[in-house]
Design brief:
Order of helices and strands: HEHEHEHEHEHHEHHHE
Distance between the termini: 44 Å
Radius of gyration: 19 Å
Structural class: alpha/beta
Largest sheet: 7 strands, parallel
Number of strands: 7
Strand order of the largest sheet: 3-2-1-4-5-6-7
Amino acid sequence: MTDDKPGHAGDPRATEARQREIQQRQDDKDRAQAKGERKPPAGPQAVQAGAREQPSDLPAQHITKPGLEAELQLQPQYQAPDYLGSRKLQDMAALITGGDSGIGRAVAVLYAREGADVAIVYLSSHQDAEDTKRAVEAEGRRCLLIAGDVRDPAFCQQAVAQTVQQFGKLDILVNNAAFQEHASSLEDIDEQRLDETFRTNIYGYFHMAKAALPHLKQGSSIINTGSVVGLKGSARLLDYSATKGAIHAFTKSLAQNVIEQGIRVNAVAPGPVWTPLNPADSPAEQVAEFGKQTDFKRAAQPEELSPAYVFLAAPVCAGYITGIVLPVTGSVGAI
């Protein structure tokens, strides 16, 4: 076991404990500020424009980091039952970080439905990971679970090696793991928090891409999860927004770097999505309002994001697309 000081990746249990400590300090500040605040009035009715109606109201729930999907009072919709696979990723091998829950789980399911085997990298949410594995296997494909910390470059090398050993190749890397904790002012973000956010959200993407590139070939792709806050900023997510902006720039830069190898690199920039990330960040009363500021007046469900990841991964769909940041935000004029 390595020493898990700020700036040094190590035992996932230490990372989990450190993230909970950061969360606890912010929770204490939120409780002190919450007195006297009034809940905003209900807004217009949520917009429904997809294959099936999605939840418009979210529970007022706050959960402990890193956040289990199984703990959510409203289970995220990830199955996309109206999405029919058509062999777009047939016999490919994909590695998805943060694939145990949320957007990562939804992407894993659709990748399997399109014919891919999937390796799931996750920190410590074993129950969620096992649930995702069962969902992938129900689509008739193989699923490999790999627990560890993407802040650690040695772990990233090991995760890629295990994936290639299990599946014989690697065609798609989805960088999706993230750490998020809000703050009301810049002064609230100490070195520990800044280090945690950047090393998870952008260092982890660098480490995984560097480990994966020697195994990728013509027709392969890397897809990074950015964010709407990386496009327009966020007053309460200063460090998180900065990492997402960095991810967008990294995407465009790496796309230029590897284009001659026939490898495409793109990003998806989600708006508010109902996953464990936000209930493990915001106070319960704010979680209940999550996503209602969008033009759709609601948060997205993971299954509303996952087809974008299929589109960008599939050579038959996006073979002439690289270096883009695709906004899926529920609002007009996100960029």
